[in-house]
Sequence to fold (255 residues):
Amino acid sequence: MRLLFVGDIVGASGRAVVKRYLPELIVNQQIDFVIANGENAAHGKGITPKIANELLAVGIEMITLGNHAYSKKDVLEIDSSIPLVFPANMEGARRSLSTRVVEIKGLRLAISNILTQVFMDYVDENPFDVMEDILEEVDADLYFVDLHGEATSEKIAFAYYFKDHLIAVCGTHTHVQTADERIIDGCAFITDVGMSGPFDSVIGRDVQEVLDRLVHNKHTRYTVADTDSMLCAVIIEIDEISKRSTSIERVQIRP
Ligand SMILES: [Fe+2]
Ligand SMILES: [Fe+2]
Fold:
């Protein structure tokens, strides 16, 4: 079984790059299921029903979120028929939608979204405790986690702690792809998948606006940069007999 996981899709430019490359990636890489992080899909913050449907129409089958999950208020109107995965340990979280189980090739894959704690806001439960609860409460054959967080060490430690129970821990949130992908005893891991968003930018935002704030203390809106996007993703191969991951490969397509 081959999974494709696309990193944080940022704004219209990020959606455009996914639309452009996803169909050929699915065919050429013989992908069985596509997951993407959509927490920045709507103007860089959050997601709307319309944009979720737009992503589903291009081949994404499950959309994970993150600390920006609730930035657009109409996200609360989205019912469970739209495959969104909300953070499991965020204030106001829709916990019943924080792990979704899908069947792929006769195996039940549980997909969860969990926030780390270091340098992260609105986290109301330790991610390790949350993961223990998911493993106890959710019945599945394979467990995939989008671990959404800032600190590299925390994401690596999480992967080592849960490696025997998970098929993948894929980091998101920093928007910068790390080159540390590896298999840890059958668990695919990468500290951060990186974003699918504007290449000439500061993690997706307009360079000048970020500089105006950092250098001149000006209040800016952190508008999404209006430049062509890169696509960042990983491809994970899972052995269906042993139910363990055998490879993880980075994908990075620059404009
Ligand atoms: Fe993000
Ligand atoms: Fe984030």
